């Protein structure tokens, strides 16, 4: 009958409209949830940075823009010629790089014959760091090459004391990185936290601190949280990476970074934690974003 068909058509139209409305509402909610997640601000307990060298295929300007969007405050290990790129993106340099053709990880402060050259190099870097308004400058012990750990401390202290008054005057902290000598940096001398702490005691300046690299020290000594609690007064900077592999800090590796970040925060730390993992996944910025969220306690 004509009346029956009209009612059926009307019912179908109402049902179709209701389904469309429900689908649209669901889609709107999903879009809104996604936008909220993208725009969600970090909690602010941890100050985040990232090491530029891990993103070698990406222009520094692009890394800065992506980092700023995620919510990072800083970039690590930048050379003076690139300071302005970081600054123009509204970021700071958390720790300045100090490697050139003459000096670096394997050739550092543990040899007296290096001191004259290193003093000249570091005084120039201290000037440039201070002038830019940055506060930290990295340094390295160098490799042992048969040198005892005791003599290494004596030599490093002797050389670094020559620049400490200048660093203090310019308000720049000289920060020695703890690196593993088991996997990545064979024979590197500053490869245990206690060695670095003894060096800091020998130097006796608040402008000398340690960079506690969580990845490296997990490989060398483990016991990460206890070490942070015991020696945090000597630490002014932290680096992260997954163990083993030095890749993403997700559940593909053994460290539980939220607990480590909580331990760092509980010490009253006000400095930076920098991501120094080498992204293995195709979308490197997505890996960085994930790492920041993992560490955002």
TrEMBL record:
One Pfam family in the UniProt entry: AP_endonuc_2
Keyword terms: Isomerase, Pyruvate
Family matches, as SUPFAM superfamilies: Xylose isomerase-like
Superkingdom in the source lineage: Bacteria
GO molecular function term, any single one: isomerase activity
Ranges of residues in domain Xylose isomerase-like TIM barrel: 87-278
Name of the protein described by the UniProt record: Hydroxypyruvate isomerase
Species classification: Bacteria, Pseudomonadati, Bacteroidota, Chitinophagia, Chitinophagales
